[in-house]
Design goal:
Elements lengths: L1 H11 L5 H13 L15 E4 L8 H11 L9 E11 L3 E10 L2 E2 L2 E9 L8 E11 L2 E3 L8 E9 L4 E5 L2 E3 L1
Antiparallel strand pairs: 1-2, 2-3, 3-4, 3-5, 5-6, 6-7, 6-8, 8-9, 9-10
C-alpha cells in the first residue's frame, strides 16, 4: 500500500534528505485514517526515537549539536548515548537524554504532560505542559517562565511512526 511505500522511502533517507522527508511526512499525515484518534490510541504509549527533526526547537537543536559536533572541552568526560521520547498513559512524555559523565550513567529527563483539548474532534490536538527536569535522581530548578503549556498536534500515528508538531516545530 502507499503508506508502506512512503515509509520505506522515508527510512532510506540520509541526513541530507530533510526537505524530502518533510514532503513524505505531509503525505503520510494526509493518509491518517479518519477512525484513528492519535491522542486516545494506546499505541501512542511506548518508546519513540527521534529520527527527523525538520525544524529543531532549542532543546533538540542543542542535542543535535552535541551528537554531530561535540565541543572539545567535553572530551572524554562526557558521552551522549541516546535520545528518546517515552510516552505513558497517553498523557506523560519524558524526553530522555542518556549520557555518561565521568564514566557514570547520568540521564537528563525533561518531563511534560498532555492535557486533552476537548474542542478537538479529530483527536490530534493536546496541550503539552512542561513539568520539570531531572538530572539523575535530582530534580533541577527551572524558571517560572518554562512552566507553561503549548499546543501540540499529533498528526500521524501507526506502529512505526509518530508525527508531532508544537507550533512550527515538526518532530517524528
Amino acid at each position: 500500500e502507499r503508506r508502506q511505500e512512503l515509509k520505506r522511502k522515508l527510512f532510506s533517507l540520509g541526513p541530507d534528505g530533510q526537505e524530502e522527508a518533510a514532503q513524505i511526512l505531509t503525505q503520510l499525515e494526509d493518509r491518517l485514517p479518519s477512525s484513528v484518534r492519535p491522542v486516545d490510541d494506546p499505541s501512542l504509549n511506548g518508546r519513540w526515537d527521534f529520527v527527523f527533526d525538520i525544524e529543531a526547537d532549542i532543546g533538540t537543536g542543542v542535542i543535535r549539536k552535541l551528537i554531530e559536533d561535540p565541543p572539545p572541552i567535553l572530551g572524554p568526560a562526557f558521552q551522549l548515548n541516546d535520545v528518546r521520547m517515552e510516552i505513558s498513559n497517553n498523557m506523560r512524555i519524558d524526553i530522555i537524554v542518556a549520557t555518561k559523565v565521568l564514566n557514570r550513567d547520568c540521564d537528563l529527563v525533561l518531563s511534560t504532560i498532555l492535557l486533552q483539548d476537548e474542542s478537538d474532534v479529530d483527536g490530534t490536538m493536546v496541550l503539552e505542559q512542561f513539568e520539570g527536569i531531572r538530572l539523575g535522581d535530582m530534580q533541577l530548578p527551572v524558571p517560572d517562565s518554562w512552566k507553561r503549556s503549548r499546543p501540540l498536534s499529533i498528526s500521524y500515528l501507526d506502529e512505526d511512526i509518530l508525527i508531532a508538531a508544537a507550533g512550527n516545530e515538526p518532530h517524528f
